[in-house]
Amino acid sequence: MRGYFSSEYLFYHEGLVTDFVYDFLYTYHEVLIWGAVLFGVLASVGLLARYSLAVYVLLYSVLFYFDNSLGIYNHEAGLTIQILFVLIFAPGVQNWSLDRWIKYGYRATKSIVSYSDWGLKLVLLLVMVGYFTAGVSKIRYGGVEWLDGKTLQYYLSGRASFVNSPAQKFIPVSEDLDWKGSDGIVAYTYGNFQTRPQFIEFGKWVASNDVMMIFLSIATLIFELGSIFMLFWLPYRTLYLLSAVLFHFSIRVFMGLGFLDYQVICLALVDWKYVSTKLSLFFIWMKSKTT
């Protein structure tokens, strides 16, 4: 990866993207986008499901790689592509598809048989790794000092507002420095993309409370590192996945970064049959207490 340095900001250009590839992607990016939309729809309805999904993942990856070459890293797309790649091969993904209806007709739902759940387990592992490594990264690069609340305070106080400054800053910049590689970066910050005045002011109000910032920092780290336990216990997994949706919703409120892909993935991984059973038992218990 080649780094282009200026006095204040660092911009990336991926070395593997040659001028020819860059020109091709730049010229035909709309074709690639519409191709991804087409095969994404085909994969969603399950028409030639695995083949459509494979082409969709390929096109999605190309577009994702092109974004990366310009210095834009889409965290949501990274996890989504990995999960979709698993689904290309995972058993059971065609149980609810046009392919099955075409093959079995009205007997499609009756012909569903049990299958190995290794695909689900691998997807859960990918989600866990995403959250867990986020927590590890905070400790690895920020140390215990990350828990003092100053990092979150920086983002919520308005100093990282995308409205007033570039979205991503690399500070300071020097070709002699070595941090996370040999690109001369010692620190970087992402921007706060929230543009609604009421949410910006709410963030500033929260950021003004040092104790709250410390509490939220500790809670964030515990939440991310605690993701490893969702692999082993269904009740904890259910609570964790639902909490993750609220976690990303709060980031949406404070920073304008909703991570919609993550929220959809977490909701899709919730065992709703288990939730329904527990809620039914709870309401039965409540009814018994009131009668």
Summarize the structure.
The chain is mainly α and 291 residues long.
Keywords:
291 residues, two-stranded antiparallel ribbon, 12 helices
Instruction: Give the % helix.
Output: 55-70%
Low-pLDDT stretches: 1-14
Order of helices and strands: EEHHHHHHHEEHHHHH
Determine Rg (CA atoms, Å). 23 Å
Q: Tell me the total number of β-strands.
A: 4
Give the count of helical stretches.
12
Oligomer: single chain
Major sheet details: 2 strands, antiparallel
Q: What share of the residues does DSSP label as strand, in percent?
A: under 5%
Shape label: globular
Main sheet: strand order = 1-2
Give the CA-CA distance, first to last residue: 69 Å
Please, what is the average pLDDT?
A: 81
SS-based class: mainly alpha
Model description:
The chain has helices spanning 19-27, 29-45, 49-69, 75-89, 98-104, 118-142, 150-156, 197-207, 210-225, 234-255, 260-269, 272-290, and strands spanning 2-5, 10-13, 168-170, 188-190. The protein has 12 helices and 4 strands. Helix 4 runs parallel beside helix 11 (260-269), helix 6 crosses helix 9 and helix 10 (234-255) runs antiparallel to helix 11 (260-269). The chain has a two-stranded antiparallel ribbon with strand order 1-2. A two-stranded antiparallel ribbon has the order 3-4. The chain has a domain at 1-116.
